[in-house]
UniProtKB/TrEMBL annotation:
Residues 1066-1196 form the Trs120/TRAPPC9 fourth Ig-like domain. Residues 9-195, 198-267 form the Trs120/TRAPPC9 N-terminal domain. One of its GO terms (cellular component) is trans-Golgi network. InterPro entries: Ig_TRAPPC9_Trs120_1st, Ig_TRAPPC9_Trs120_3rd, Ig_TRAPPC9_Trs120_4th, TPR_TRAPPC9_Trs120, Trs120_TRAPPC9, Trs120_TRAPPC9_N. Residues 545-644 form the Trs120/TRAPPC9 first Ig-like domain. This is Trafficking protein particle complex subunit 9. Keywords: Golgi apparatus. Residues 885-1039 form the Trs120/TRAPPC9 third Ig-like domain. It comes from Corchorus capsularis. Residues 329-497 form the Trs120/TRAPPC9 TPR region domain.
């Protein structure tokens, strides 16, 4: 049998192409390719070379449309025993190829060519083409038969020269055909086949042979007419041969003549196909097959069988009908042909048959059937046990890998290259179900393993270590669950042995072990967040959500992302990390010499890493690298150096494998086999690299641990910022985020601003003042009874601490430049500095209440500070020392109605606290309702609270009286009670309420309760809520002054220098002034009563003064009076201007030494709404009675 046969093969002239002399293989292939261009020579082009010596036997030669067809046999071919039966099997011409630079002796070349031609006795034309002769060879005038020199020239000239020579050969062959036909018609010839030679040649056979000679001669003449390009003449001779062969029952030659007639029909139609021709060809070839089979049955006893011609006829018909519409018929023909292979004697015939069947099945698209017969071909090659046969077997098996889904990644990538190009980068991470099925089909596992083993065996025999390594890698990677541990070790040894025969650094497209999947892309730490710069705004960070490393987040505004991928931003020069997981599901230790990220874009340097994986284990490793230039970065997988060969491991392949495992299409999940948990699919994001950016690194001075503060503690924390990048920081802005932002009292932003630009390697320290917040009730209960370390860990993990947000950027871009260079603006960064504050429970409130106290005042010679008109006495006028500020008494009120806020505190901690109270006073002067304030702060003695003890702290409220009464304070109450009349309130209800709330807040803000523990721990108690609750019902009494205030003083001779009240004997520093204020019995003592109007309207009143003894009895009235007076003590009618004071003078004469009390009282006539609201009077005609506080007078006896 012959390969690549078709119906038109009978019309092709076979020409042997032989290398003469030393011709390099590459040049021989080049010269052969030049010949292949001239496989068809039109008859119209050979007329100049053709000479008609006598009348041509080809009466119907188509000179205008006909042609001669050549089939070049490189290296020649051995003579066929069937040349007489089919003339196209003869080598009818020989062409020698000589490369003159390699063969300078042309005589030797000619002799070698003549010797080579002797092996082809059937050749009618012989030519030797000598290319690139030298000048001396060209100048040699010696003529050599059949040697044609091709002078050195360009390629087109040589091809034209070769075309001319081929036309000459075609004309020579045509003339030789004419001679042979004329000779055969006149003299006749004896034509035999191997079938005839095996006959006994009895007398009867000789007679039958003579009768068949004429039919065979006509069939052979028809063959030469067909080779000469005259199908009409050929068909006429074939028709005669068919009639004669039928008469002599020569079925074998009958089938041959019928085959020739079909070829003549197709050549005459010039390749045109229609239904009628198809039917005719099908009918005639079925007859051909039947007659070949008849000849086989008739000659059953012969050792040479015509079965090969029958099978060739079946293949020719199948090739002619081979298209998808006639697939059923073609498959039936090929199946019959494959069944006939069992009866073939020669193994090479079976090889050719299986090759042709596989080709035709592949043409139909039946890849699995084609792969099956290709394996049959490979097995026949492997039976020969030589290297060349093993190479052929390996190449044939390589063609079957696609059908069996075990192809090398090189062939698979070629097949999918166009699809990937069309799908684009956006779809590269998608896993399609069809791709999983195409890569892995578990029901084919056994057959796939057999194919890979055959490829491995053939590669080892062929001496191709790379192909052997690839086959072993695919076998081990895909079918490790079906391979025993011993088999796995054997494959590992095969991989190692193959790698030893390969040069160092060899790469293979097929990965072996380990399995590698993408684990995660770690987010940038909070110190490396990247923020898009918002062009056109000074606050460029506004409106751009920080992205970690990701610019797009589900919470940020912007265009939707079509490919559902996040955008990952890397910075030139800054190391990055990618987590991958490796799995070794086999039973041997796996040594990975190096593994690193595979980057195709060329702008990334990867750092290799070596890993040792025990049997049946997995491990998550960190791969790192540094971006080197701006642009996109594509990371399809990892590059691995394992088993001596470098391979590429794609993340997508492992994702497909894991998807196939979940759907039952893959034998097992290698990661689950190693005990690794199931992970969600992690896709490779779109990575882009931006120019170098500054990089601030923060550090808390003193350590990065939690800052432990007690509730209300105030402490300064120093944050050190260092620029670890390669670009200076040009812009920076500090803001707060998180919970308890009000705990950050101050940030030294100017310190950071003054350090700009912060060059690479520079540092700046920023002080931040913190105040510990107050723990909630739940937090207080949870931390009760716990150690400091336990509560610290819980508090930090709760995320209650605030954070500093520092947005910074490199090169400064003016607003105008930002608008014009939006695409080239590098992003900025956000540094998150968490202030890890652990707030411990400090002092706790037990309760708070409002207290009233009464401490009598002494009468002296001091002038009232009311004369200054400031409404509040100064410290120098009230007569108290530094230690007496806590009980500061108004001389016009004594201690009547003095109020204190008592806070009861407990100390549940393990430390000792000292509590101090300070009050901020205001001195105001009223001019045209404008207030100018100046503040003074007074401290009081400290209170110590030991651990697990309670203490009470008093906070005085007397300093917070309003300077005067105003109707605006009571406008709300007056309007609700209906006493407004025609008067319009000075403020609306809303403004009144707001003013009152502002007064309360002002009162609370001026009271500071601070604590200190140890040397460095100090803070402030949050007493706002406690004061608010305690003053809820008595806030009006605390804030509002009395309408009238009364005071007494001594007036020696009507004049006196201001003295001090309430002189204490223990105070030796004021003994001299105390003697001046002494009241002596039996002496007339001039006194003054001072009355101040605290409202903005004039008050008319009746004043009275009463003196009482220690028993509380009136001493100036009755028959037993002990005090005499001069002046008026009752019924004194007075009119006090607004916010001013008046005095009334009188004298007292004490008869008995002792303790006395002076009390002043007044009845206000025609009281206005303000006075009635302050007195809480509901009746409009009810008089308003005001009484001052008692003043103490100590009367001494005279010595």
């Amino acid at each position: 049998m012959e390969p690549d046969v078709s119906i038109e093969t009978s019309s092709m002239i076979r020409i042997a192409v032989l290398p003469i002399g030393d011709v390099p293989p590459s040049l021989l292939r080049d010269y052969h390719s030049m010949l292949l261009r001239h496989h068809t020579i039109p008859l119209s082009t050979i007329s100049s070379f053709y000479t008609e010596h006598q009348k041509s036997p080809f009466a119907h030669q188509p000179w205008d449309a006909g042609s001669l067809r050549f089939k070049f046999m490189l290296g020649g071919a051995p003579p066929s025993p069937w040349e007489d039966f089919q003339s196209h099997r003869k080598i009818l011409a020989v062409i020698g190829i000589c490369h003159c630079p390699s063969s300078p002796d042309l005589d030797l070349v000619s002799d070698q060519f003549n010797a080579a031609c002797k092996g082809y006795s059937s050749a009618l034309v012989e030519r030797c083409f000598a290319f690139w002769p030298s000048d001396s060879q060209l100048e040699d005038g010696k003529k050599r038969e059949n040697l044609v020199l091709f002078p050195p020239s360009d390629r087109s000239t040589q091809e034209f020269h070769l075309q001319t020579m081929m036309q000459d050969i075609a004309a020579s062959l045509l003339m030789e055909f004419e001679k042979w036909v004329l000779k055969a018609e006149s003299a006749g010839t004896i034509l035999k086949t191997p079938l005839d030679s095996q006959a006994t040649l009895s007398s009867e056979e000789v007679i039958k042979a003579k009768k068949r000679r004429l039919a065979r001669a006509q069939k052979t003449i028809g063959d030469y007419c067909l080779l000469a390009g005259s199908p009409v003449d050929a068909n006429a001779h074939y028709s005669t041969a068919l009639e004669l062969a039928r008469l002599t029952a020569d079925f074998f030659w009958y089938a041959g003549a019928l085959e020739g007639s079909v070829c003549a029909i197709l050549v005459d139609r010039m390749g045109q196909k229609d239904v009628s021709i198809e039917d005719e060809v099908r009918y005639r070839y079925n007859s051909v097959i039947v007659h070949y089979r008849k000849s086989f049955i008739q000659d059953n006893a012969q050792r040479v069988s015509p079965l090969t011609f029958e099978l060739e006829a079946i293949l020719k018909l199948a090739r002619f009908l081979c298209r998808r519409e006639l697939a059923k018929e073609v498959v039936e023909l090929l199946t019959n042909a494959a069944d006939g292979a069992k009866s073939l004697i020669d193994a090479s015939d079976r090889l050719i048959l299986y090759v042709e069947v596989a080709r035709l099945f592949g043409t139909l698209g039946y890849q699995r059937k084609a792969a099956f017969f290709s394996r049959q071909v490979a097995q026949l090659y492997l039976q020969q046990e030589n290297r060349l046969a093993a190479i052929s077997a390996m190449q044939v098996l390589a063609m079957t890998t696609k059908a069996y889904r075990v192809q090398s990644r090189v062939s698979a990538s070629r097949h999918s290259l166009s699809n990937e190009t069309e799908s684009g980068h956006a779809d590269s991470g998608k896993m399609h179900h069809q791709s999983v099925v195409s890569l892995f089909e578990s029901q084919w596992s056994t057959l796939q393993m057999v194919v890979l083993r055959e490829i491995l065996l053939s590669a080892v025999r062929a001496g191709d270590p790379l192909a052997a390594w690839s086959a072993a890698a695919r076998l081990l990677r895909s079918y490790y669950p079906l391979i025993t541990p011993a088999g796995q070790n054997g494959l590992a040894s095969a991989l190692t042995n193959s790698a030893e025969r390969l040069p160092s650094g060899t790469r293979c497209a097929d990965p072996a072990l380990p399995f590698i999947r993408l684990y995660s892309f770690p987010l940038h730490p909070s110190q490396m967040d990247i923020v898009k710069r918002n062009p056109g705004r000074e606050d460029w960070w506004a409106g751009s959500a920080p992205s970690g490393p990701f610019i797009y987040t589900p919470f940020s505004k912007g265009e939707p992302n079509d490919n559902n991928k996040q955008d990952l931003v890397w910075v030139v020069g800054e190391p990055i990390q990618v987590l991958v997981e490796l799995a070794n599901p086999c039973g041997f230790d796996l040594r990975v010499d190096s593994i690193y990220l595979s980057v195709q874009s060329g702008n990334f340097d990867s750092f290799p890493l070596s890993v040792d994986l025990p049997p049946n284990s997995s491990q998550v490793i960190t791969l790192s690298g540094i971006p080197t230039s701006v642009g996109p970065v594509v990371i399809p997988g990892c590059t691995v150096h394992c088993f001596g060969v470098i391979t590429e491991h794609l993340f997508r392949d492992v994702d497909n494998l894991l998807l196939g495992a979940t759907q039952g299409l893959v034998l097992s999940d290698p990661f689950r086999c190693c005990g690794s948990p199931r992970l969600r699919n992690v896709s490779v994001p779109n990575i882009s690299v931006v120019p170098p950016l500054p990089l601030l690194v923060s550090q808390v001075v003193g350590g990065d641990g939690a800052i432990v503060l007690y509730e209300g503690e105030i402490r300064d924390v120093w944050i050190k910022l260092a620029n670890a990048g390669t670009v200076p920081v040009e812009q920076a802005h500090i803001s707060l985020s998180g919970k308890n932002q009000d705990s950050v009292i101050s940030i030294a932003y100017e310190t950071l601003k003054s350090a700009l630009p912060l060059k690479p390697g520079s540092e700046v320290t920023i002080p931040v003042t913190l105040k510990a917040w107050r723990l909630g009730s739940g937090e207080t209960d949870a931390t009760a009874g716990k150690s400091a370390s336990g509560s610290m860990v819980r508090n930090v993990k709760d995320g209650n601490s605030p954070s500093l947000l520092i947005h910074y950027a490199g090169i400064f871009w003016p607003v105008g430049d930002l608008e014009t260079n939006k695409s080239s603006v590098p992003p900025g960064r956000r540094l998150v500095v968490p202030l890890q504050v652990c707030v411990m429970q400090g002092l706790s409130f037990v309760k708070a209440r409002l207290l009233s106290m009464e401490i009598p005042a002494h009468v002296g010679e001091s002038l009232s500070s009311l004369a200054n008109g400031d409404g509040n006495p100064l410290d120098e006028a009230v007569g108290y020392g530094q230690r007496d500020r806590l009980v500061k008494i108004d001389p016009f009120r004594g201690s009547w109605g003095l109020r204190f806020l008592e806070l009861e505190l407990s100390n549940p901690t393990d430390v000792v606290f000292e509590i101090s109270v300070s009050v901020q006073l205001e001195k105001s002067s009223n001019e045209e309702n404008l207030s100018v304030n100046c503040a003074a702060e007074y401290g009081y003695p400290k209170t110590r609270i030991d651990r697990d003890y309670f203490a009470r702290v008093l906070i005085p409220l007397e300093h917070f009286k309003l300077p005067f009464l105003d109707d605006s304070i009571f406008s709300k109450d007056l309007q609700s009670d209906g006493y407004t009349g025609s008067r319009n309130p000075s403020f609306s209800e809303r403004n009144t309420k707001a003013e009152l709330n502002a007064s309360i807040k002002n009162l609370i803000s001026r009271i500071k309760v601070r604590w200190q523990s140890g040397r460095n721990s100090s803070g402030e108690l949050n007493i706002k809520d406690a004061i608010q609750a305690a003053l809820q019902s008595s806030v009006m009494d605390v804030l509002l002054p009395d309408p009238l205030t009364f005071g007494f003083r001594l007036a020696r001779n009507g004049y006196g220098s201001p003295g001090k009240l309430d002189v204490k004997e223990s105070d030796t520093s004021i003994q001299a002034s105390a003697s001046k204020n002494t009241v002596i019995a039996h002496d007339m003592t001039p006194m003054e009563v001072l009355v101040r109007n605290n409202t903005k309207e004039t008050i008319k009143m009746n004043l009275s003064v009463t003196c009482r003894d220690v028993a509380g009895k009136n001493c100036v009235e009755g028959t037993k009076a002990t005090v005499l007076w001069a002046g008026v003590l009752s019924g004194i009618t007075m009119e006090v201007p607004p916010l001013e004071e008046i005095k009334h003078c009188f004298s007292l004469y004490f008869l008995v030494p002792g303790e006395y009390t002076l009390v002043a009282a007044a009845v206000i006539d025609d009281a206005n709404d303000v006075l009635r609201a302050r007195a809480k009077s509901d009746l409009p005609d009810e008089p308003i009675f005001c009484r001052g506080p008692p003043f103490h007078v100590r009367v001494h006896g005279n010595a």
